[in-house]
Write a structure and sequence with these properties.
The complex is a heterodimer. By secondary structure, chain A is mainly beta. In chain A, 0% of the residues lie in helices and 50% in strands. Classes of the chains: A mainly beta, B mainly beta.
Amino acid sequence: AIQMTQSPSSLSASVGDRVTITCRASQDIRNDLSWYQQKPGKAPRVLIYAASSLQNGVPLRFSGSGSGSDFTLSISSLQPEDFATYYCLQDFSYPRTFGQGTKVEIK
Amino acid sequence: QVQLVESGGGVVQPGGSLRLSCAASGFTFSNYGMNWVRQAPGKGLEWVSFIQFDGTTEYYGASVKGRFTISRDNSKNTLYLQMNSLRTEDAAVYFCVKDWDDFWRGPAPSNGLDYWGQGTLVTVSS
C-alpha cells in the first residue's frame, strides 16, 4: 500500500498567518491527491481534489499544489474557522490511504 | 441536498458481528461508488472499503479484508457494511462516504470523496 506522510503533525499559528502543510507519498501518484478538513466531532469535508482544484464553496485562501510524490496545502491568511485537523488522501490506487493528519492550533 | 445517514453502530463483544447501514438521499445513489472510512477515538482517518456504483467491484483495506463485507441495495438507496470477527482495534466511528465521480470504474479510485455522513460509533469491548 502507498504510504502518505504528512508534516508537521501539529502546528501553532495566529490569525492572519500563512500556513503550509506537506504530504509525501511513498511512490509517484501523479496528481491523484485530495485534502480534507475535520473539526472536532464533525465529519471531514473536502477542500482540494486532483492536487490543486478547489472544491466549490471552499474559500480562496486555501490552495493545493504538487505532483508526483510531494504535495502542499496552503492557507494564505489563517482565519478563526480554519483551526482544525487536515488530512491528505491518495486517490491513485486501492487501498486508498490517508496521511496521519496535521492539527492546526491557535497560537 | 446530499444526505448520508449511518445506523447500526453499538457495543459488541470481541469476535462478534455487526451490520452498518447508510441511507442515501439527494443524489442518484445507483450512479456513484461508495466507501466506508473509520476513525478510532482520538486517531486519524482510515479508509476501510469501496463498492462500485453497480456493486460489481469491491476493495478492502488490509486490516479488514476477509472479515468485513461491503454491499449495496440500489433499489433502497442503501449501503451496508457487514463486520464479522470484530476486534478491539475495530472500535471507531464509521463514516459512509460518497465517491466524487459518477459511473466510475476502476481499477483506480475516482477524484476524492465529496460527501460524508456524520458517522456511527462502533465499540468493541467485553
